[in-house]
Amino acid sequence: MPTNAPAALPDVTASDSALRRFLHGLPGVDAVGLEARAASLGTRSIKTTSKAYAIDLAISMIDLTTLEGADTPGKVRALAAKAVHPDPTDRSTPTTAAVCVYPDMVATAKAALNGADVKVASVATAFPAGRAALDVKLADTRDAVAAGADEIDMVIDRGAFLAGKYLKVYEEILAVKEASGAARLKVIFETGELSTYDNIRRASWLGMLAGADFIKTSTGKVAVNATPANTLLMLEAVRDFREQTGVQVGVKPAGGIRTSKDAIKFLVLVNETAGTDWLDNHWFRFGASSLLNDLLMQRQKLATGRYSGPDYVTVD
């Protein structure tokens, strides 16, 4: 069967039983310890000069997102303009990392960005449920790439994963990776539906073994999305995966991260868990829509000493 497993782990995807053995052989997660460490890191304070740097870094890591049934070309063009110039009154404000849209809006976003240094990310594979035949998912992916997507955010088949059909999920990720071509692949686990931390750890390793460029917490469409604890667990996974294989994989928490304070907590998690190599938008992203506005307001406050309020930033 086709394989994308790193050379350091050559046999773990050779069969369904081998993959199951490997995933269930991963160390169990100490849930109490994980949550306590995430909570402890979340209490860290940073100096004002560091805060200014962290806010700019967080802005540069945002996948500015609109994933609604009512999305229009005008809304996507406005979002692209905001991604390029988040604060039109201050051109020193960093651009966001990407604009994330549905596949049918990729061409609109690409044209609106007009060569700016902002990626176009597209959700695919029957987002957000992932309930479609593989050929439909692959067609969805190819359409997005053909329209100009630089990145593909796919969802795994959570039903198959929870039923223990790990090889099926692995082969699906592998197929989407191939269909993505040169586009970077983010694999979404929907951690809120995986039930246990052990499952999140297994999903993280499964995605990385299949060639994910990023592992992503969630779609933002369920009750429980990114949390400090599940993101910490995924950061541990990418750190350990690089130690074993030499391959670096990015992490993208998505959904529920709305304030500068939240974003800085996540950056502390990155620094203290995976390390500074991940403090870059090539390796860490925030899937967000409302987060950018709060970062801009906090940035203005640091620059002027005054809190401008939400009327001074555009509504997404």
Q: Quick gist of this model?
A:
By secondary structure, the protein is an alpha/beta fold.
Residue windows where pLDDT falls under 50 for at least 5 positions? none
As an assembly, this protein is single chain
Estimate the global geometry from the Cα principal axes: globular
How would a crystallographer describe the biggest sheet?
8 strands, parallel
Average predicted local confidence, pLDDT: 93
User: Which structural class best describes the helix and strand composition?
Assistant: alpha/beta
Strand order of the largest sheet: 7-6-5-4-3-2-1-8
Order of helices and strands: HHHEHEHEHEHHEHEHEHEH
Q: Percent range for helical residues? A: 40-55%
Give the end-to-end Cα distance, rounded to a whole number of Å: 45 Å
Fold and architecture overview:
This protein is α/β, with parallel strands linked by helices. Helix 5 links the parallel strand 2 and strand 3. The model has no long low-confidence stretch (mean pLDDT 93). The chain is built from twelve helices and eight strands. Helices cover 46% and strands 10% of the residues.
Which key terms come to mind for this protein?
316 residues, alpha/beta, 46% helix
